């Protein structure tokens, strides 16, 4: 290995500030703080927010509320999705009923027009067809209405 390339690997004391717990191990971390350890030697001190001494997984004080919260959140979302599906189906049903009503109104109007046409045909006077006289029949002159 090349000299002065790798960090120094030395004993370091880690302190969990949440649980007020310290342990000695080896690390390449450096620190300006030092602490006197049980063996009488002074070691660099690295402060930690959480370690195995304070982490809920290792202490057995896990909260299962988060899991329940996830389930409740899923159920709320699922209920919202179901509600949305239900509302959409109701809207489609109303739209289909409205279209069916329009179609029925069109049929009624068409029937009314047909009834009116047949009634008008029945009530209208029939035109008398002009009959042509045979060619050998004498033609009468129309009477003139001139009065003297």
Structure characterization notes:
The chain has 148 residues and is of the alpha+beta class. Among the domains are: 10-59, no CATH class; 63-113. It is built from 2 helices and 4 strands; from the N terminus they run E-E-E-E-H-H. The chain has helices at 56-59, 65-123; strands at 10-16, 21-27, 34-36, 42-48. Strands 2-1-4-3 form a 4-stranded mixed sheet, with no helix packed on it. The chain is rod-shaped. It starts with 9 loop residues before the first strand and ends in a 25-residue tail after the last helix.
Sheet-strand content, in percent, reads: 15-25%
What is the alpha-carbon Rg in Å? 53 Å
- The ordered string of helix (H) and strand (E) elements is EEEEHH
The percent of residues in helical segments reads 40-55%
Order of adjacent strands in the largest pleated sheet: 2-1-4-3
List low-confidence stretches. Answer: none
Structural class: alpha+beta
Distance separating the two termini: 153 Å
Which overall shape is indicated by the principal axes computed on the Cα atoms?
rod-shaped
**How many β-strand runs?**
4
* Main sheet characteristics: 4 strands, mixed
Q: Residue-averaged pLDDT, rounded?
A: 81
Q: Count of helical segments?
A: 2
Structure, briefly:
This protein is an alpha+beta fold. The protein contains two helices and four strands; from the N terminus they run E-E-E-E-H-H.
